[in-house]
Amino acid sequence: MTAVRLVTAAAMVAAAALPATATTIVVNHDGTGQFETIQEGIDAASEGDTVRVMPGTYTGSLNTNLAFGAKNIVLRGNPADPSETIVDCQHLSGNRAIKLVGTGQDTTSVVDGFTIKRGRVVGPSEPGAGIRCWQTSPKLLNLVITDNVAEFGSAGGGIYCGNSSPVIRNVTFSVNSSDNGAGLYCATFSSPKLRNVSFADNVAGNRGGAIYCGTGSDPTLAGVAIVGNTAGNEGGGLYCFQSSPTLTRVTFLRNVATQSGGGVFCGDDSGPSLTNVTFALNEAADTGGIYLTDNCDPTISNTIIAYSTGGAMSCQFDSDPVVTHCYSHENDGDDDLCSARPDNVIGVDPVFCDIGNDDVTLASTSPCLADGNEWEELVGAHGQGCSEPAVEPASWGRIKAFYR
Fold it and tell me: I want to staple 165 with a disulfide (CB 3.0 to 4.6 A). Which of 3, 15, 191, 364 is the partner?
């Protein structure tokens, strides 16, 4: 009997040591789920659980300003169609969709498959109108973040990251606004990882129409489209301050800065890396392509800068870029790339498929294809998209398909 008791006790200890099985909690606004509001579902969840939010539009106090508490969970709408599951903050002051602040979320915390719209935050003490991350690094997947407003000194119309490095994948930022960083604002020491992300028609009153990178923030962008964003001062697409982001296969198209850096503004000891990037049709009073100042020393390779207003590149106040295997063409003002290196090409048409319709993929005759230049390397963000240029109109949806 003693032996049996010992075995039974050991089995009980082993069973107690096993992790609890994760459960799925269902939220449905029509009352057919376990809960009708999202925050109730989150509050009922334990570490590792999934809160499944059924299709519909969710508004009100228990469906906005959502907080996970000190636990990692999965909040899932419809990853295949984020438009079906909507968190609508209704532009009410102080209403954002999700607030993850100082509670230690890591990449096992996931927000997946939602449209986040009409958040509104006011003043510098409450940044992040769509999602605010502070000292947390969740996964933010398959989201549409649109029409969120951070105003009167606030930052981050779409997402604000403070000392946070989330994974941001398959996300669209559109029509968000802020004083700085209308799409994404990276505050001190934030280095999010972006893949297959688009920024379209976001507006910053000051800097960073799409993205603002602050001190010590070194985000990674791969397969990112930055299109039609506007900054009232500097950095229509991207603004860098004491930061060194890494860009690979990124497109800057039709971004506008009222002052300088229609595509990119880089200053104050920043050192970004740009590889296989395409700049086209960006605008600024001073340098529509890339503006460098105050010891900004980027590395730029296999990049196209074309059809910009205000010039291709400007290097001010001890900025010294390393520019290799790049093409500069038809930039109104100047095609200069701030570099005496012989291995750049000035004034040769990259032969986009249909620049008139914003298609910046390459025709088969492009010298920017690997078989069209002496380096045998692809130049720009895109490969071949057509046999002959301007054969048929192209949509931005067609361009985005090349990132997948």
Answer: 191
